[in-house]
Amino acid sequence: MSRSTSVVRALISFTLLACLPAAAQNVPDAPTPKPSVPSNSPFPTGAPPAPKNAHPDNTPADQPAETPSDVPPQAAQPAQQKPGGLASSRNDLYTISVNVSFVQIPVTVKDRSGRLVEGLSPRDFTVYEDGTPQKLSFFSSEPFPLSAAVVVDTNLPAGSLKKVNDTLPALVGAFSQFDEVSLYRYGTTVTQVCGFSGSGSISTASLQKLKRPGRNEGPPVTSGPLANQGAVINGRPADPSAPRIYTPPQESYVLNDAILRAAQDLSRRDKVRRRIIFVISDGHEYGSTAHYEEVRKVLLSQNITIYALGVDTAAIPVYDKLNRIRLPGFGYGDILPKYVSETGGDMFAEFSKDSIEQAYAKITEVARNQYTLGYNTKVTPSSTYRAIDVHVHRPDLAVTSKGGYYPLPPPPK
Known about the structure:
Layout: H1 3-25, E1 81-82, E2 86-87, H2 90-96, E3 102-110, E4 125-129, E5 132-134, E6 136-140, E7 146-153, H3 158-173, E8 180-186, E9 190-198, H4 204-210, E10 232-233, E11 236-237, H5 255-266, E12 274-281, H6 292-301, E13 305-310, H7 317-323, E14 326-327, E15 331-332, H8 336-343, E16 347-349, H9 353-368, E17 371-376, E18 386-392, E19 398-400, E20 404-405
Parallel strand pairs: 7-8, 7-12, 12-13, 13-16
Antiparallel strand pairs: 1-2, 3-17, 3-19, 4-5, 4-18, 6-17, 8-9, 10-11, 14-15, 18-20
């Protein structure tokens, strides 16, 4: 082999070695192997994948999952619904209540003897709104914690108010550790004595602030500077020999204002709780700035129930019936039954200290252990009142619920 031939071969070998890296970079990737398709597969080769199944684990494949179209997306995350889309947990109620089209109805069911009836199911109830049956989207029979505003009439006669003052520790004890309570008193004005806190956190000092001596109704004053001179003509008594009797001025009993103040405070509390106003009074209303219809609208739009303990004249059957008649210039003798009836609450009329203490426990038991029904309706202006009628398909049972509601306006977008 000549020297020139060896040089040529060396140059060719060097050139080939220098080109190998560049050639390796230009080599195309190998094609991805396709999965083997069984010969009996009904899907053709290259068909796109099927969409992911959106059914929940507990929903049969042949049954579509039910999701109400008007429930906000956050409501569907924690919801634990029964078959058919009926929610039954208080956590579900929290998310459902965000939507203003959801109507919540606390319902009390008692037998002939006045005992609470347990064990009813959604099939035992039918709810009508303006005469049209509604499909339930929520049903629960579990007890609810309470947000309670206790309103005490401190303008009662001294003897009746002393009985109420002596029973206040039993009133606080009637609430559970899961309830929150706020205390109010009213007479000619309304005062919040204690803000919302756990029932076990209400101090003795707060109860002392709630107490008042009451109205002293002594014998009429027949002499002295406070005596009434009777009929007066030209600034002089028509009959100088007539006895002078002192007539006190008409006092105010601002029950409407007191309920409105408590309702406004309750409207800002947790909507999962059962929100109630517990009134201890003779029901006399006179001199309030707020009118009954105004207060009623706030109560029904905020789903607040009135429970009442009638004392003094409200605890005497004959006087109680007469006091429910409105006298021009004197206000209502007892307006509490109207509030209780409209909001679906309950009222007890007690006179003795022991019966008052027992009534406290009965009222909180009824308020906490109601059935809770709910349905979705169309959003309408808040001024439109809607009538509600709840039926139970079992004989000899008494049903108590609110008579209607005012829908809240839709939230701003």
